[in-house]
Design brief:
One of its GO terms (biological process) is protein folding. GO terms for molecular function: unfolded protein binding. Keywords: Membrane, Transmembrane, Transmembrane helix. The chain has about 300 residues and is mainly alpha-helical. The chain has one domain (about 5-310): Up-down Bundle (Rhopdopsin 7-helix transmembrane proteins), CATH 1.20.1070. The protein has nine helices and no strands.
């Protein structure tokens, strides 16, 4: 598999969201639509993916309820994140409160878009599904910038909650969101081809810019975040206990990605195409966010709160 090639991923990883963009790329071209075979041949029942070896068919087809497990996981995760946002808001004087809240809000926003994009609810190749998937991709790439921004703020290079911190955050957020949205729509719709498919052959399912913004950039951001936070905790704060939360968060995040790529097909085959590994990934991703909140709380628990009885 070459760098930025989605062919193998879209056929072997059930419910891999970004494959929605390539399905439209193929189905909208009469010369390429014949490449859609097997489960992908009929767009009204096709699961997420490109000719997947196993996939959850669209809701209503042969009694399918869609990717119900991940739909429930996303809904429950949204409730959990709302609770985390409210708890964050209570810690009025805690360092990095505004930045953490912004990250939690972004994660919350990714969940309904994930639910719609890989829930097998909408017809494959439809404009609605493509737009929802593109927005989801843009939110994910922006979320990882917010994650990295939280680590940078924790170093206190600039004072948290001030314009010196928030202005760069929102400017870069807008640029990353807009850039990823443009790339995603260009892959699916071929509006300009400037940052769309990275091959003259659309059937190759190749897009280096999309791969960079939805896979490489999140991985790099996560690595830098954990590296910076461990440096802050162990070298600047001289604390040991909060490290556990961040280590556990890192483990949960890695396991969530393994659930996507390694468990997805195993669970899909074992359940008769009723569920796949996406719901486990969502649960672990939400657990990661929860552990990051606990880690942040543990290193700011000496901050002055309006009502310390909450803690």
């Amino acid at each position: 598999m070459s760098f930025g090639d989605y062919s193998d991923i879209c056929s072997s990883v059930p419910s891999y969201t970004w494959c929605n963009l390539f399905y439209r790329q193929l189905s909208a071209n009469s010369n390429l639509s014949s490449l859609l075979t097997g489960l992908s041949a009929n767009s009204t029942s096709a699961p997420v993916g490109i000719n997947p070896s196993c996939g959850i068919e669209r809701v209503g087809n042969d009694g399918s309820v869609g990717n119900i497990a991940n739909i429930v996981a996303c809904a429950l995760s949204m409730a959990v994140v709302v609770g985390l946002i409210l708890l964050t808001e209570r810690r009025k004087a805690a360092v990095g409160r505004v930045e953490l809240r912004n990250m939690l809000v972004l994660y919350f926003l990714t969940l309904p878009f994930q639910l719609m994009a890989n829930g097998s609810l909408l017809i494959q190749g439809s404009t609605g599904l493509v737009v929802l998937t593109a927005i989801h991709a843009a939110l994910v790439s922006t979320l990882f910038w917010a994650l990295l921004a939280n680590a940078l703020v924790s170093t206190q290079v600039v004072e948290d909650g001030t314009m010196a911190s928030l202005a760069p955050f929102f400017i870069l957020s807008a640029l990353i969101f807009g850039g990823t949205l443009y790339i995603s729509l260009d892959v699916a719709l071929g509006i300009t081809q400037l940052l769309g498919p990275s091959s003259s052959d659309p059937g190759q399912l190749l897009s280096i810019p999309l791969f960079v913004m939805t896979s490489l950039w999140p991985a790099l951001s996560a690595f830098l975040y954990f590296a910076i936070m461990l440096y802050v905790i162990l070298n600047m704060l001289k604390e040991g206990r909060p490290t556990l939360y961040y280590v556990l968060a890192g483990v949960a995040f890695v396991l969530s990605q393994l659930a996507w790529f390694l468990l997805g097909k195993v669970i899909c085959d074992g359940s008769g195409s009723k569920v796949d590994g996406s719901f486990i990934a969502t649960i672990l991703e939400t657990a990661t966010v929860g552990l990051l909140f606990l880690g942040w709380k543990s290193i700011t628990e000496g901050a002055w709160d309006d009502d310390s009885t909450y803690y």
